[in-house]
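Hi team, as promised in this morning's meeting, here are the two structures we talked about. I've kept the exact order from the run log so nobody has to guess. The first one is mostly here for context; it's the second one we should focus on when we meet again. Sequence first, then the predicted structure tokens.
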Amino acid sequence: MSASVVDSAAPPVESASTESRRGFSPPSLVWAAIPLLLLAAVLVLIVRTDGGLGDRTVPPIETLSVQRVVLPAPGLIELEVVNGGPDPITVAQVLVDDAYWQFSMEPNGTLQRLQAATVSIPYPWVEGEGHAIALVSATGVLFETDVPVAIASPQADRESFLRFALVGFYVGIVPVALGLLWFPFLRRLGRNGMNFVLALTIGLLAFLVVDMWGAAQETALATVGALDAPLLIPLIALLAMGLLIVIGQTFRRRNQQRREEAGALTLSYEIALGIGLHNLGEGLAIGAAFALGEAALGVFLILGFTLHNVTEGIGIAAPLVKNRPALFHFVGLAALAGAPAILGTWIGAFVYSPFWTTIFLAIGIGAILQVIVEVSRLIRRAQERAGEPALTWATFGGAAAGIAVMYLTALLVAA
């Protein structure tokens, strides 16, 4: 009786022919495609019939986003606009300083959803003064923007490229390199001192994450609403964090023989990458300030960011204190962390885009979060070998000091 019960409860044995029928044979692929084709047909029907409601009698929903205002030459204003609404929109008139003005648009005509265009206005703007601009749609809806301080926008020529490259060099590479000069001093610290510096790195990076999150949210509000840029920030940050974790694990598996030394050097490069993406955002802010004609703000940002970024070199050098890396590694670390500031000033001055700026900042958030995880793991392993908990007065004090240093130096940067 017991044997029959066991036999009846046992799962049936499938034959080889049954298992072969579970493969991706042509009939099974057809059955997989049928629901997709039917779904596509339903979506087309919804679009063609407006969801079954027929012709709408309500007014169209119009949203025109002004992404950038450029003054390329005396007597000319250019606006880069995007139709962020669900309905087509036609720019019928342009107001400058409460007066109707002639304009041209490329491409001309009605803008479809998410279509971009450049509006050119031959207006005799006055250097140093502000100008109010309003675009009027064919249905009478106004979309307003302004020129805070009228000044010729930077031109993408050789001289301008070199000038903004020098600005990025001052803001990014110079302070990071100065911070790396503390490496000989860091090598003299004991275990508690080293844990303090590593925790200081976590504090620095935690401040950068919060700072970049606020900047990304603010920038996302200036993007086209239909792109849902604020929603992309946490998603892209998590994806970037996961990607870097996988890359780091792969790299460590390929360096088993020199695991400790290679792991420390890899971590320093990861820190430099995360800081570099943050410095890219700082460069964008500086370049955009000069493009808007706010030269005083731009100079103030240069001074503030330069002082603010000196502490970043300490965080990059901290994981290397037990090793003696070659000099070219320090050059590479300074370039990786600082050179993106040069790229950022170019982008901000010549081709600034709120949407792509938001994407860059989100990637930077994810990169820095991954580095925080790695540094925390380094502290935990060192403390476990010493038989002590990860959170001690040294590590807590280091994290608090890192946040305090970044906050105090950030006070020198204008909001």
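And here is the second protein, the one for discussion:
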Amino acid sequence: MKGPILNPLLSGIGQRYLASLPLAGLRIAPVLNTNIRSAGYYVYDTSNFTDVPTDIRRAPSAPFKRLTSKLSEDTFNAKDYGIEEPIDQSEIEIYGSAFAADKSAMERAIRVVAINHEIRVRNTCRALTQTSSPTVKWNASTGTTILADVQAAKNAVQSVIGVDPNLMTIPRDVYNALRVAPEILERYKYTEGGVVSKQQLEALFEMEIAVTQDLINTANEGQTATLGGIWSDEVVLSYSQPSQDIKALNFMRTYNWTAVGGSGPGGISTYSYVEDNIDSRIVRARQYTDEKVVAAGAAYYLSNVLS
């Protein structure tokens, strides 16, 4: 058996495939690449944003004033996540080429790794302390206060961190309800087809919208399969901004260990090798990350938004 070898070509294709998945984890918690596996990190303190020096005039020969940021005692510690899929030689012959077989196995493996990351981010969002549930559910035929509910959540975030959230994560069931909600349609009375578009919702809520759609089996192992969304009947508003600035404001970050044997600068890596004793090629998808909250006040969680 030959040892696993990093496959740069598959890894590059895998990055594009990862970006195409109907998931929101890497948008809520953008990747921050790091050369070290574990370290202290900056937990965002509101004072880093709001305590702006206003007397910065410099006298001749005097030193300039300097910015300082508060460093928390919390740490990230990247953990090894990954999965492999063997491809029997007889299957490779059906595909027609080893590359075609590797690519198909790579996509299945990456999806599993990505869904596990999604679940970890989702669980963190569900533990937020800034949370509420709409009194009138968003799929009610009358009396909804969708715009007011979202604005209240935005106000709660703004009051803590000084800026509005810029990302609204909603599962497919909530998205479909919003597109036909009478309160929303009233703002677009002459919309063709009686539904509003994603772009119109983004304009109305004044933030980007990430719609999650992937399904998994939610039943316990050994039980009859029950398909369900990773996210369901919930909404997360967050300030999430891709950046390699370790002090930048973000609700969460995916600290990604990029060293050899880690998960590469794109957040995931792919390996391939031959295992002779089972006459198969093996494709491995790997992610070496830790998902940490940087600014807890930069997100708001709405539960049970539908009836």
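Starting points for discussion:
Residues 98-126 form the longest helix (29 residues).
The mean pLDDT is 91.
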